[in-house]
Write a structure and sequence with these properties.
It contains 14 helices and 4 strands. It has helices at 9-16, 27-41, 50-71, 87-113, 119-144, 153-177, 184-203, 218-247, 256-260, 264-279, 284-287, 289-313, 324-335, 342-372, and strands at residues 22-23, 180-181, 211-213, 216-217. Helix 1 (9-16) packs across helix 12 (289-313), helix 3 (50-71) packs antiparallel against helix 4 and helix 4 (87-113) packs antiparallel against helix 5.
């Protein structure tokens, strides 16, 4: 039984015609990680469903987020004078992050190895990846925190948006070109993040207080790397690939409006969430940064998943995500002072966003599972004893 049929008949027909097409030119991925994953996948049992591998990897990132939320809920533990997070937590975070990264690389290889590749598997993988952005960004933030030598919560908010837009660029490319160009920054960032967690466990967070060179602090390097990777690598490559398709007359959407339509909902989400940050009477981002990041990241994942469905089914992206309508009301209630307890409002709205996204995800997985006559987390067939 499907909770709700989010995927239209036209989209289901599009999934039937779907063929996976991706390009990965990252040297780290091609020459190091893929051979490593090809070696590891041989040890996995052939009855293990690829989607179960994907979900397990995602849950390692959620576990990291929850673990750091317990020990450093408001991102102050790494500040000078405060009780720091124990070293074993950073060791666990490093291991869990690398396991998540590894399982994310192995799942597709297990699908091909067991001859169980389906459009559902790709959608499930990329859908969870879109939600994973908030979990690893917030967890990394605990290394530096929000103290004098840390990163301000407002700065981290905008850095989060840089990461989110970098992620959606790849799927915008595919929406317009039919080819998924895998970003270079992902493999580099995941390997670096895992290593930084382990180094932090050994040297302590106090090390990150020191300047790298002259007056350049590690927090400044952290900020610079995120921005530089996005604006000097990810964005130019995305624009180049779309422009190349346009010049070769292989662009899927002829008008600029249709080509850039997928950005409308993400931009409106950015405007709404930023308006709440700027005009909040109680400075909600300062009060509840973790919950605010989680709300924004989950809402963004919901918007992105709908784009992924459209690009995989070769259907037109809808201009607006309905989730933005109640969010507009929430933001207005907050900034006008009608609802005075902003913290309560944020918790209620975040809960609603999470439940909405989970409902959407379960419904889509059920729909596609029924459509392709498969189980999402088992290689057995539904009519198989």
């Amino acid at each position: 039984m499907v909770l709700y049929e989010y995927v239209t008949k036209e989209q289901l027909a599009g999934f039937d015609r779907y063929k996976y097409s991706a390009v990965d030119t990252n040297p780290l991925s091609v020459y190091v990680m893929h051979p490593f994953w090809n070696f590891l996948v041989k040890f996995l049992p052939t009855w293990l469903a690829p989607n179960l591998i994907t979900f397990t990897g995602f849950m390692f990132l959620v576990l990291n987020f929850l673990m750091l939320a317990f020990y450093d809920y408001d991102f102050t533990a790494s500040s000078a004078g405060n009780q720091h997070v124990a070293s074993w937590v950073w060791v666990a975070a490093g291991i869990f992050n690398f396991l998540a990264y590894t399982l994310d690389g192995v799942d597709g290889k297990q699908a091909r190895r067991t001859n169980s590749s389906t459009p559902l598997g790709e959608l499930f993988d990329h859908g969870l990846d879109s939600w994973a952005c908030i979990f690893f960004v917030a967890t990394v933030y605990s290394i530096f925190g929000r103290g004098e030598s840390g990163v301000a919560v407002g700065t981290l908010y905008y850095l989060l948006w840089v990461v989110l837009f970098s992620f959606i660029l790849s799927h915008w490319e595919k929406y317009n070109t039919g080819i998924l160009f895998l970003p270079w920054g992902y493999d580099i960032s995941q390997g670096t993040i895992s290593l930084v967690y382990l180094v932090t466990a050994v040297v302590g967070v106090e090390t990150w207080y020191q300047p790298v060179i002259w007056n350049l602090l590690y927090r400044d390097l952290f900020t610079f790397m995120i921005i530089a990777c996005s604006f000097s690598v990810t964005l130019p490559m995305s624009l180049y690939n779309v422009l190349k398709a346009y010049r070769s007359n292989t662009l899927k959407h002829s008008s600029l409006y249709e080509a850039f339509l997928p950005f409308l909902s993400p931009v409106l989400l950015f405007v709404l969430s930023t308006a709440w940050v700027i005009f909040s009477p109680s400075k909600i981002l300062e009060l509840q940064p973790r919950m605010y990041y989680l709300m924004v990241g989950t809402a963004f994942a919901n918007v992105t998943c709908k784009l992924i469905v459209c690009q995989m089914s070769n259907t037109r992206c809808q201009p607006l995500t309905w989730l933005l309508l109640p969010m507009t009301a929430v933001v207005l209630l907050s900034i006008t002072g009608v609802f005075t307890n902003e913290t309560l409002l944020l918790y209620l709205w975040t809960s609603a966003v999470i439940l909405t996204h989970i409902h959407y995800g379960i419904s889509v997985v059920q729909q596609l599972s029924n459509h392709f006559n498969i189980f999402a987390f088992s290689l057995k067939k539904p009519n198989q004893d």
